[in-house]
Design goal:
333 residues; alpha/beta; Rossmann fold; CBS-domain; 2 domains; 5-stranded parallel sheet; 4-stranded mixed sheet; elongated
């Protein structure tokens, strides 16, 4: 059959095509799901040692492979890097043409190949043996060239590929990807990886904004609208206007004791200019600790129908002020 004829879409939908597609999807997902369960039940014996080697690595974890295994290796490198383990992908073919120079004696190398006989990995394997670098092999064949050469062997359990011909890398690459995720998460937990660390490595994403702490978004220093309890209201209003937040915090003995909002001004309109800040302020205002997630702070403001939260330390001293609009501009919503 000519290739163009094979690739051309059918003239019309065949009877039962939708049902066939759904049946195929279920078969594929069950096949791959069963393989993942088998992998979980029979984790490679060297898994814990592989985590220990990568955890103690003074350099980077270098992932390599070719074809579909190469795509998985690239993704695993990205996941490791974003969860606290410095890593990068090295194309196996490019390694043979000068890119072996990117590898240092402080690095750990992990090579992925379902067959373990990928020719393009040959020079990379030889390089690790020549310079005594830790080589972690990932393959379905324990007796393959890659696995015989590797210091640590992450052998995948026997499982059929999901395509009927058993040729397209499907189940095997799914297991490789899941095994990479397992390594990355195990390493992250061993390092004590926290949400703020994740945000550091993901400054451009919406998820990063939702993981921001109140202390990272709040206005601080000279931006704080603070007045003394005995401050005249004329002075207080000038502070509220100058800081542009529509609020002033009343501080006594270094502690936040009250808050004055535009609403408080309206409620005390009669004789307002003859009063002092403490007389107008709402006592015991709603506050947030600096470590509170910005998303939690937004939820709190929405629940209490306020637009401003003062951020205070455990002693009640004001550290900053968090405005709802600042949170929204930062992408926390």
């Amino acid at each position: 059959m000519r290739l163009d004829a094979f690739l051309r879409a059918p003239d019309g939908p065949a009877a039962g095509a939708a049902a066939d597609a759904l049946a195929t999807a279920r078969r594929v997902l069950r096949t791959e799901g069963q393989a993942l369960l088998a992998l979980a039940d029979r984790l490679p014996g060297d898994f814990a040692e592989a985590v220990a080697r990568m955890l103690g690595c003074r350099g980077r974890v270098i992932l390599s492979g070719i074809g579909k295994s190469g795509h998985i290796a690239r993704k695993v490198a990205a996941t490791l890097s974003s969860t606290g383990t410095p890593a990068f992908f090295l194309h196996a073919a490019e390694a043979s043409h000068g890119d072996l120079g990117t590898i240092t004696d402080a690095d750990v190398v992990m090579a992925l190949s379902n067959s373990g006989e990928t020719a393009e990995l040959g020079d990379l394997i030889a390089h690790t043996r020549r310079f005594g670098l830790t080589l972690i092999g990932v393959s379905a064949r324990a007796d393959s060239t890659l696995m015989r050469a590797a210091d640590l062997r992450l052998t995948l359990p026997a499982a059929p590929e999901a395509c009927r011909m058993g040729l397209a890398p499907t189940t095997s690459t799914t297991m490789m990807l899941a095994l990479g995720d397992a390594l990355a998460v195990a390493l992250a937990e061993a390092r004590g990886f926290l949400p703020e660390h994740f945000r550091t490595f993901h400054p451009g994403g919406r998820l990063a904004a939702r993981l921001a702490r109140a202390s990272q978004i709040m206005r601080a220093g000279d931006a704080l609208p603070l007045v003394a309890p005995d401050a005249p209201m004329a002075e207080t209003i000038l502070v509220m206007t100058a800081k542009g937040l529509g609020v002033a915090g009343v501080v006594a003995g270094g502690r936040l004791t009250g808050i004055i909002t535009d609403g408080d001004l309206r409620r005390h309109m009669a004789g307002l200019m003859d009063r002092r800040a403490a007389e107008v302020a709402t006592p015991n205002p709603l506050t947030a600790p600096p470590q509170m997630l910005a998303a939690e702070a937004v939820a709190l403001m929405n629940a209490r129908k306020v637009t401003v939260l003062f951020v205070v330390d455990p002693g009640g001293r004001p550290l900053g002020v968090l405005h709802l609009h600042d949170c929204l501009r930062a992408g926390v919503a």
